[in-house]
Design brief:
With 183 residues, this protein is mainly β. It contains no helices and 15 strands. It has strands at 4-13, 15-24, 30-32, 44-46, 56-60, 63-66, 76-85, 87-91, 97-107, 113-120, 131-140, 145-148, 154-156, 161-166, 172-182. The strands form three sheets. A six-stranded antiparallel beta sheet has the order 4-7-2-3-6-5, with no helix packed on it. Strands 1, 9, 12, 13 and 15 form a five-stranded antiparallel beta sheet that branches. Strands 8-14-10-11 form a four-stranded antiparallel beta sheet, with no helix packed on it. Strand 2 (15-24) and strand 3 form a beta hairpin. The chain is globular, with a radius of gyration of 17 Å.
Length: 183
C-alpha cells in the first residue's frame, strides 16, 4: 500500500436539539424532558450539571439516561439541556490504517462556540471504551479557529471515525490532515 496525504473538509458541523423546562435528577444519570423528539443515543449532553463528554445512553419516553451521573446534589428543574448530535468528519478505510496528523476547526458564527472532537474506535463499538476524546468542550471564539497539531499518534484502523460535536447548529468547519495507507 502506498501512503498518501490528504485533507478532508467537513462543512458546518454542529447539530443541536435544545430542550427547555427539563429536570436534572440529583447525583444520577436521569434527565426528564417534555418530549424526546430529536434525542438519540450517542449525543453529547450540554448542561452545567454534567461534565464534558457525558452522552445519552438510553431514551425511554420522556426520561433520558446518560452514561455519567449529574454533578448536582439537588434536583435541578426548569433547565435548558442541549443534546449535541455528531458529525462524522472522517472514516478510515476498511482495508488500511490512517494517521490523523492535525486539524483546524473554524468558527462559522459571530459568537463563541464549544467544540468536542473524538476518535470512535469501531473495533470496540458498543463498549465504554469505544470513544476517546481528542478535545473536550474547547471554546472557539468568534472569528477564530482551534488547531490540533502533532497528534500523529492517533492511528485510525478499519472504519474508525473522527467525530465532531459543536454546541451551535452548523457552527464549525473542520479541515483534517490525514495520512492514509499506513502499515
Amino acid at each position: 500500500m502506498a501512503e498518501s496525504f490528504s485533507n478532508k473538509l467537513t462543512r458546518a458541523a454542529g447539530l443541536v436539539v435544545s430542550k427547555t423546562n427539563s429536570t436534572v435528577s440529583a447525583n444520577t444519570n436521569s434527565i426528564t424532558v417534555t418530549d424526546n423528539s430529536g434525542i438519540y443515543v450517542g449525543q453529547l449532553v450540554d448542561n452545567q450539571h454534567f461534565i464534558a463528554g457525558t452522552k445519552v445512553n438510553l431514551v425511554s419516553g420522556t426520561t433520558i439516561n446518560t452514561d455519567q451521573a449529574s454533578t448536582t446534589s439537588a434536583v435541578a428543574g426548569n433547565q435548558i439541556v442541549n443534546f449535541l448530535g455528531v458529525t462524522t468528519a472522517f472514516t478510515a478505510s476498511a482495508s488500511e490504517k490512517s494517521i490523523l496528523i492535525g486539524g483546524t476547526f473554524a468558527n462559522n458564527t459571530n459568537n463563541q462556540v464549544s467544540l468536542t472532537v473524538e476518535l470512535y474506535d469501531n473495533s470496540n463499538a458498543g463498549t465504554a471504551h469505544s470513544t476517546v476524546a481528542i478535545a473536550s468542550k474547547i471554546p472557539v471564539p468568534a472569528g477564530s479557529s482551534f488547531v490540533i497539531s502533532d497528534v500523529g499518534k492517533t492511528i485510525l484502523e478499519a472504519n474508525d471515525e473522527i467525530r465532531i460535536f459543536c454546541d451551535v447548529e452548523k457552527g464549525i468547519d473542520a479541515s483534517l490532515s490525514i495520512l492514509t495507507g499506513v502499515s
